[in-house]
Specification:
By secondary structure, this protein is an alpha/beta fold. It contains seven helices and ten strands. InterPro entries: AAA+_ATPase (IPR003593), ABC_transporter-like_ATP-bd (IPR003439), ABC_transporter-like_CS (IPR017871), ABC_transpr_LolD-like (IPR015854), MacB-like_ATP-bd (IPR017911), P-loop_NTPase (IPR027417).
């Protein structure tokens, strides 16, 4: 049954448990993400923060607990349905960008739309619009190897946003960048997400970056230790 919320979150986890052997990565976590939220998940290595991101995104299955997207339970979906959900309702930005080396910037951005069945012309045009919003106009034809680290991450951000997802998951998105480029990249991600109305969940080891975000959730030993708001 759908839980009762005063204000229904766009994404919610209830009693999330994830084990690896006898060790708990998640030990019964409850979390709400509101539409437009920008949340940093922090904690020491092995605390469970990446497991939480992957469980919420449907990349991993929780051993127990429930996950709701816009009030609809999604943790019971089969792998095909969860894959479709990740392609249509979620966006992803990873530390390495994970761009396709053989494709141009505009083709990388268009990829989720193309995989979703949209036409090439429409998908490429939408990709170009997002690249322009992220300051990459004129670099649409460049391949990842022809871009700087910060530019490649902006392509990854554009790819995550082009299909207007409800939630963007970012796993150490600035981990491979220098401090200045990392901050600029995070600013671009948060501004673009706010423009589209997407919530952003960021896993990071960078305490300074986390403290600059509107909300921080600290994970320790598979449990939420604190919730902080700016």
């Amino acid at each position: 049954m759908d839980p009762q919320w005063t204000s229904r979150p766009v994404l919610a986890g209830r009693g999330l448990v994830k084990r690896y052997g006898t060790q708990h990565a998640l030990a019964g976590i409850d979390i709400d993400i509101q539409a437009g939220d920008a949340v940093a998940i922090v904690g020491p290595s092995g605390s469970g923060k990446t497991s939480l991101l992957h469980v919420l995104a449907g990349i991993l299955r929780a051993d127990s607990g429930q996950i709701f997207l816009a009030g609809q339970r999604i943790d019971q979906l089969n792998e095909r349905k969860r894959s479709e959900l990740r392609r249509t309702e979620f966006g992803f930005v990873f530390q390495s960008g994970m761009l396709v080396a053989e494709l141009s910037a505009e083709e990388n951005v268009a990829l989720p739309s193309l995989l979703g069945g949209k036409g090439r012309k429409e998908s490429i045009e939408a990709g170009r619009e997002w690249l322009a919003k992220l300051g990459l106009a004129g670099k649409e034809k460049r391949r990842p190897g022809e871009l700087s680290g910060g530019e490649a991450q902006r392509v990854a951000i554009a790819r995550a946003l082009t299909h207007r997802p409800k939630v963007i998951f970012a796993d150490e998105p600035t981990g491979a960048l220098d401090t200045r480029t990392g901050r600029a990249t995070m600013d671009a991600l948060l501004a673009a997400a706010a423009d589209s109305g997407a919530a952003v969940i960021v896993v990071t080891h960078d305490r300074e970056l986390a403290e600059a975000m509107p909300r921080t959730v600290s994970i320790r030993d598979g449990l939420i230790a604190t919730r902080l708001a700016a």
